[in-house]
Amino acid sequence: MRIKRLAAIAAVAVLAFGAAACGSDSDTPSTPSGESPLVAKAKAGQLKFGVKADQPGLGLQAGSAYEGFDIEIAKIIAKGLGGDAAKNTYVTTVSANREPFIQTGQVDIVVATYTINDDRKKKVNFAGPYFTAGQDLLVPTASTITGPEGLDGKKVCSVTGSTPAKRIKEKYPKAQLQEFDAYSKCIEALNTGTVDAVTTDDIILAGYAAQSQYAGKFKLVGKPFSSEPYGIGLKLEDKAGCTKINEILKASVTDGSYKAAWDATLGKSGTPAPTLDVSKLTNCPA
Amino acid sequence: MDVFLDPANRQAYLDGFLTILKLTGASALLALALGMLLAACRVSPVPVLRALGAGWVHLFRNTPLTLVILFCFFGLYSAVGVEFSEDIHVNNYWLAVTGLSAYTAAFVCEAIRSGINTVPVGQAEAARALGLSFSQNLRLIILPQAMRSVVAPLGSILIALTKNATIAGVIGVAEASSAMKALIESNGDQTIAIFAVFALTFVALLVPVGYAFSALANRLVVRR
Amino acid sequence: MMSASVLYDHPGPRARMRNRVLSVVFGLLVVAGLYGIYRAFDSTQQWTWEKWQPFFETVTVNGQTANFWTDYALPGLLATLEAAATAMLLALAFGLVFSVARLSEHRWIRVPAGVVVEFFRAVPVLLMIFFLSFGGFWVFGTLIPPFWSVVIGLTLYNGSVLAEAFRAGIRAVPRGQSEAAYSLGLTKGQVMRMILIPQAARSMLPVIVSQLVVVLKDTALGYIVSYPELMLEGSKGYAVFTNAVPTFMVLALIYIVINGLLTLVAHLLERRANRLGVTNPATKAAAAATAATGLGGGGGGAGGA
């Protein structure tokens, strides 16, 4: 496997180079060794967050600005790292490119409805979870679908290659799965009656249902059939950063900024803020 | 390369290319028929038909195929209600074929029209002097000569169509590029091997087609 | 249009009558068809002011103001043009180098150049862009930003197409030209540089512009790697305004206008070249035939998607 070896050499070279860069960084007094490189970036106002751009309530690009719960979490993290949240740069990511974006340094931190799972843990590091969602169905208000069992022969839409799409394929093979590259296309298809249901995490669906342009048209079935802990993705080797972000999350519960973030975004639909179980912030590698 | 040792992954790869071939086959036939019709419109004596042909060509030649195929789903199917099948996968396949054919027909039309332009004026004049009508002239004198000079461009259009079939992925047709994307997502460290396999499959499919068409074009060429 | 006039005589009174009748009949059919399309879209309320308002004025959605043009379409268009212009310049350079390389008398230059050109002509642009963006890290040890994934992918493909077109153009320069040049004692390099390329290059203009249209459309594939071009920005727009079908129509119109302008400029330049008598018909035909081939790598396709 010559190619693999080449890749390995390249990776080692990159790591060595990165380590050297870190080494020289740690000589400067502003970043004592052992501290995450994120802190220096935050202080310099250079943090780049990977976020979703098409998920109302969570990460939505409206005009030139981004808004949503994920964006508010990004602001809390930036502040907690000692930076200025107003200086955050947001980069649009889609489900398919979140790991590569972190691995290649295109973004520093990903807050983009990012479910923690074992496969992903091999490639990136997760702080959090800052929220636990579950896969659910969004259907037109008049629909008789009451759960995933009712999907036989029905058309259900999700994002190509996403976890919810895979789950439908494996567990409910009688459903007709329509795949697009973005949920916005699924919602458009649901709005026109082209598909019978859209499936992904309940919180994402709730965000769509709460948008004023869809008021009264859709309802959430409300029977989650999975558990999706949302994590904050960062570089695999940045253990210090992971621990630091978990501390920031803990603090945000105590000082109320977590609840404020919810109330300003997803909470607008009337859903009360969830309680963040700080005892579960255990995903950082030891 | 161990990614291809998994039978499920091998199946995804094979299915992806099978879908590409199916999309290409159906679209090529439809685009050829439609393209010839449009070319006939563009050279006809009736101004309205000429405008119709020209309009079609301008519309589709200047619009990205991604947009055309997305419009087939959201415009033709969602908004207008054109449905080919109850089965969502069969339906998406035919929506993609519709978009690919409409788009490719514009290029086929232009290739045939420029082929007609390569037939010397004297040929048509002689035919007219013999009393042949427009359609006889086109059918017996011009097209047989034009089609020979059109073989090479049509070959290239077929090649482009095969590659363009990857864009059907935007409406959820499980073709080769979607398969490659899925494999890379779960096996990032083997990206190069995965790309090499997919790219070389396209090369193996298309380079022979290119040579076959240029050999055919050389045999058929009208020496003047 | 030239061909149209040779296929039939100047219409006499009867033929004019017949053409007029046919025009009216087909005209009615076209109008009926257009009306049918209008009604079909009307049945799902695609023409409502609500759905078209965002294209004419700033609207308020979810308490935020948003404008289709300044927030989405214009930034997207700018990114599209930027990527297309960069890719085209690089593709021209690539095409020139590889066309000459493929005409080389040295096998060790000719063969590798041929392999490169054939490879990039056969691989879909979508695959290239995807690989560069997500695989670039594993190959070069560094990330390739979305802009460069799009530009490099388009350069390699369109450069290869241009290389073939240039080669056909150079080979179509009448043999007498190079024979005369050799008999004057010019070297191979001089013949290529002073006789063949200048003649071929002048007749390349239509090919270059038609390829520019292809490049512009194919930038639509950039959405797949989150390059914020017109398609991606447009789809962000309709997620906010919930007007997918009207947005697709407007996006198509923008592409058609821009590509139409490009084609118009090409025709004007070509007419000027013809008037000055600098084009060589054989060269032009050969190049155009090859370029027709290269059409629509991704159709923008993917355009994008």
UniProtKB/TrEMBL annotation, chain A:
<dbReference type="GO" id="GO:0030288">
    <property type="term" value="C:outer membrane-bounded periplasmic space"/>
</dbReference>
<protein>
    <submittedName>
        <fullName>Glutamate-binding protein</fullName>
    </submittedName>
</protein>
<dbReference type="GO" id="GO:0005576">
    <property type="term" value="C:extracellular region"/>
</dbReference>
<dbReference type="InterPro" id="IPR051455">
    <property type="entry name" value="Bact_solute-bind_prot3"/>
</dbReference>
<feature type="domain" description="Solute-binding protein family 3/N-terminal">
    <location>
        <begin position="46"/>
        <end position="269"/>
    </location>
</feature>
<dbReference type="Pfam" id="PF00497">
    <property type="entry name" value="SBP_bac_3"/>
</dbReference>
<dbReference type="InterPro" id="IPR001638">
    <property type="entry name" value="Solute-binding_3/MltF_N"/>
</dbReference>
<keyword id="KW-0813">Transport</keyword>
<comment type="similarity">
    <text>Belongs to the bacterial solute-binding protein 3 family.</text>
</comment>
<keyword id="KW-0732">Signal</keyword>
<dbReference type="GO" id="GO:0006865">
    <property type="term" value="P:amino acid transport"/>
</dbReference>
<feature type="signal peptide">
    <location>
        <begin position="1"/>
        <end position="21"/>
    </location>
</feature>
UniProtKB/TrEMBL annotation, chain B:
<dbReference type="GO" id="GO:0043190">
    <property type="term" value="C:ATP-binding cassette (ABC) transporter complex"/>
</dbReference>
<comment type="similarity">
    <text>Belongs to the binding-protein-dependent transport system permease family. HisMQ subfamily.</text>
</comment>
<dbReference type="InterPro" id="IPR035906">
    <property type="entry name" value="MetI-like_sf"/>
</dbReference>
<dbReference type="GO" id="GO:0006865">
    <property type="term" value="P:amino acid transport"/>
</dbReference>
<dbReference type="InterPro" id="IPR043429">
    <property type="entry name" value="ArtM/GltK/GlnP/TcyL/YhdX-like"/>
</dbReference>
<keyword id="KW-0472">Membrane</keyword>
<keyword id="KW-0813">Transport</keyword>
<feature type="transmembrane region" description="Helical">
    <location>
        <begin position="62"/>
        <end position="80"/>
    </location>
</feature>
<keyword id="KW-1133">Transmembrane helix</keyword>
<feature type="transmembrane region" description="Helical">
    <location>
        <begin position="92"/>
        <end position="112"/>
    </location>
</feature>
<dbReference type="Pfam" id="PF00528">
    <property type="entry name" value="BPD_transp_1"/>
</dbReference>
<feature type="domain" description="ABC transmembrane type-1">
    <location>
        <begin position="17"/>
        <end position="213"/>
    </location>
</feature>
<keyword id="KW-0812">Transmembrane</keyword>
<feature type="transmembrane region" description="Helical">
    <location>
        <begin position="192"/>
        <end position="217"/>
    </location>
</feature>
<feature type="transmembrane region" description="Helical">
    <location>
        <begin position="150"/>
        <end position="172"/>
    </location>
</feature>
<dbReference type="GO" id="GO:0022857">
    <property type="term" value="F:transmembrane transporter activity"/>
</dbReference>
<keyword id="KW-0029">Amino-acid transport</keyword>
<keyword id="KW-1003">Cell membrane</keyword>
<feature type="transmembrane region" description="Helical">
    <location>
        <begin position="20"/>
        <end position="41"/>
    </location>
</feature>
<dbReference type="InterPro" id="IPR000515">
    <property type="entry name" value="MetI-like"/>
</dbReference>
<dbReference type="InterPro" id="IPR010065">
    <property type="entry name" value="AA_ABC_transptr_permease_3TM"/>
</dbReference>
<protein>
    <submittedName>
        <fullName>ABC transporter permease</fullName>
    </submittedName>
</protein>
